[in-house]
Amino acid sequence: MQATDNFAANIATSPQSFRKRKLSTLHESQPAAPPKLSTGQPGPKRLKTVHSTEDLSPGRRPEDMNKGKGVMVSRSMATGGLRGPMGFQSHSGVKRLVIQNLKTPRPTEKYYEEVWNGLEAALTSIYNEEEPKIPREVLSKNVEIICRRTEALKEKLSSRINERNKAYLQEDIVPQIESLAGSSPVQILRAVYAQWKKWIAQVTLMRAIFSFLDRSYHRKVQDVAMLEDQTITQFRQIVLNLGRIGQKSETLGCFVVKGVCDLIQSDREGDDALFDAILLRDAISMLHICNIYRQFESEFIEHAEEYFQNYASDQTMLSIDKYIEACDKLIDRESSRCDAYNLDSSTKKHLLERAYLALIEQRSEKLLDTRGVDMLIKENMSASLQSLYKLLSLSKIQEKLLGPWETYIKPSGSTIVSDRERINEMVVRLLELKKKLDNIIRDAFGQDERFTHKLRESFGNFMNDSANTAALGKEAGNSKVGEMIAKYMDLLLRNGAKAVPRSLATDTKDRDAAEKLGQSSTGDEDAELDRNLEQGLELFRFIEAKDVFEAFYKKDLAKRLLMGRSASQDAERNMLAKLKNECGYAFTHNLETMFKDQELAKEEMVAYKSYQLNMLQEGKQLGLDLQVSVLSSTAWPLYPDVEVKLPVNVARQIEKYDVHYKHNHSGRKLAWKHALAHSIVKAQFNKGAKELILSGFQAVVLVLFNDIGVDGNLSYTDLQDATGLVDAELMRTLQSLACTKIKILNKHPKSRDVRLTDTFTFNAAFIYPKFRIKINQIQLQETKEEVETTHERVYQDRQYETQAAIVRIMKARKEMTHSGLVAEVINQTKKRGEVEVGEIKKNIEKLIDKEYIEREEGSYVYLA
């Protein structure tokens, strides 16, 4: 038997299929070619006399090629032997076993050393930043062949790579860093990063060559890291943790961390010569990859904390707005730097916490200084207040701003309420203050409800503080504020949106918000009026003496309804609905009755006009057109009776209506209030006729000039005798006709005031571009006595309501303690006005005297 080895040594080349091997009887065997490691160059041609159809696959070891392949046992048969039944000719002679292309096993260790020598040469080239002489595909295939042999070879190959890399880092990389590095941490960082960048490129080539080792060994064996992780660990341990510069005790890793911290500090200080943004970002990435980022983080936070403390100390002398601006900018820069240079979110969190502590919490006394915050609010510095709120929110101490917030509101509001000289501007100034504060809450405090609640609480406190209104007079105890709010509402409802002060006009943000809610459109006057009425109503909600507001509001509403002075009936009814929703039906009952009276009066006049039309058909002369409003005395304010001598024709028409009304409503009596009358009079002037819209008293005076010639005159005494008006009313009436821009009468002598010695003539030469002219009556300012009378009436009504509440409660409970009764009375009367405990005690005593209740063993008992 003879074996033939025809396995060529170029197994490391690209896989090639073996051609079929032929089984035959050989008398001479071919000599085997000596084994040789491929270098990537073409080798000698192999024998092609093979018949096996199997290829040498990448995972097949050369020594396995003999197993069951290309082997045949044959017997040499003598020539001319017998043929078998299948036609085979049998031979005789010596029998031999011939094995063609027998592959003898190659020594594993020897083969491994040959492969390793080629791989080591490739590693040397990579270290020298050169391309390996052997192609990467060949190197990678050699690694694969070794890995497919035994597990021991894989482990040995992995160990040798590690040792080779370790030696390179220790003997080449560290000395190169030492030669390139300067004395400063930033220079050392730059040198380390340069070698790190080169090392990463080298590792990338190693991974490509040893990828099969990674897949077949490193990934599958526990406690063995992938090649890339091994190289990073080695760089960290050998270069960063153990590497040193000369005789310095600190490692390169320490210098790297210091260098990164120095770069950040140079950025903070604006040192462009030292700062390198690209190096900083790449260095932080290196720290992450090398797993020494946490070491950097702790030192970075320590340096940052020291910087924040020094910065805060340096900025302490600034004004509060400048300090807020400086802190806000610093925090924004620190936050942006963390994002720009890929610092961990945890680093950013710890960094900002230190910043908040040093700049905000430890300097909260400066940030929350009452005088400083007062200045920001007073000057309406919304941007600084927004930054202040933001800073305090970062440390979750924004609620501490409520103290300075309240401290500003109360004195500011108290000053407005107690200002006797500008009492007529009180409501407008309060609304301006509230609007400014509302805008600050909206723009600076992010609509924080805590500040809105504190604002309402503060307004309620100073608006109901009797000490603030004490300077306004005796009636202020019943809330002068309520009176002034009612007068402001009257101004708006009489004049509409044009009466809204420019300072209270809705701004763009408010309009946008209203439009989003579908409340109004921009530029809508009705909506503007409604928004300002709502603002006035907000002040009304703060006051306790709502009954004072009701008294003055009803008085002004009556004038608007009777004189036809309302700018909008829709606005009137809308306001009434708001009051009803706010205070309930009982509060607005009388006000609603006033509107109903107006509606009933219109129906009455329709019936009276029908009656007059029937009289006209009977041929009776109607005379002037009379309009009458019949009012309920219980719902409307009380008006004084003013004596006046009416023209005969007017008095006759009034008498006719009186008869007609009493005929339809038996048992009722009409009390005529001529001071509330108004009329339309036609006047003939030289330039044509005009229609004059006058008050009743103005009309009574003017018709007297019909009885004299054009050149005739009437003295003050003549007019007083003819009208019967008292001096105050007559002077006011004559002044409106002769002393304004629209002069229907001429006064002699000319002056602004009317005297008892003056005479008056008809101004026939009067000229005015419009046909219909409204002559405004000179409005008498309410006297102090009238105001006090109204407040006194409110006070009396409050006593009656308090007594009625006590009786209702005692009737239901039968027996109550003093404290329980007082609490219940306050609860039942608070919607109309807060009653002082002292007043409740007085009313309890009155009811005891009237024998509604009695005192018995510390309790009150109801007497049926």
Automatic annotation (TrEMBL):
Which SUPFAM superfamilies does the annotation name? Cullin homology domain (SSF75632), Cullin repeat-like (SSF74788), Winged helix' DNA-binding domain (SSF46785)
Tell me which positions the record assigns to the signal sequence.
Answer: none
Does the keyword field hold Transcription?
no
InterPro entries in the cross-refs:
Cullin, Cullin-like_AB, Cullin_homology, Cullin_homology_sf, Cullin_N, Cullin_neddylation_domain, Cullin_repeat-like_dom_sf, WH-like_DNA-bd_sf
**Keyword Calcium tagged:** no
Q: Where is the composition biased (Polar residues)?
A: 1-17
GO terms of molecular function = ubiquitin protein ligase binding
Question: Which BP terms from GO are recorded?
Answer: ubiquitin-dependent protein catabolic process
| Residue ranges of the region described as Disordered | 1-69, 503-528
Q: Name one Pfam family in it.
A: Cullin_Nedd8
Domain Cullin family profile: residue ranges:
480-738
Keywords attached to this Swiss-Prot or TrEMBL record, sorted alphabetically, are: Isopeptide bond, Ubl conjugation
Biased composition, Basic and acidic residues: where in the chain?
A: 51-67
Family designation: Belongs to the cullin family.
PANTHER family associated with the record: CULLIN
Q: What is this protein called?
A: Cullin family-domain-containing protein
Organism, as annotated: Calycina marina
